[in-house]
Amino acid sequence: MTASLVLPRLIRTGSGALAEIADLLGRCGVSRPLIITDPTMVQLGYVDRLSGHLAGAGIAFGLFDATEPEPTETSVISAEAILASGCEGAAFDGLVALGGGSAIDTAKALAVLGPHGGRMRDYKVPRMVDEPGLPVVAIPTTAGTGSEATRVTVITDPENDEKMLCMGLAFMPVAAILDPDLTLSLPKRVTADTGIDALTHAIEAYVSRKASPFSDQQALAAMRLIAPNLRRAFHDGEDREAREALLIGACFGGIAFSNASVALVHGMSRPIGAFFHVPHGLSNAMLLPAITRWSIPAAPKRYADCARAMGLADEAASDAFSNDALINELRALNEELGVPTPTGFGIAHERWQQLRPLMAEQALASGSPGNNPRVPSADEIIALYDEVWG
Ligand code: NAD
Question: Which residues line ligand 1 (CB under 6 A)?
Answer without folding.
Answer: 38, 40, 44, 69-71, 99-103, 105, 141-142, 144-147, 150, 152-154, 182-183, 185-186, 190, 194, 197, 254, 280-281
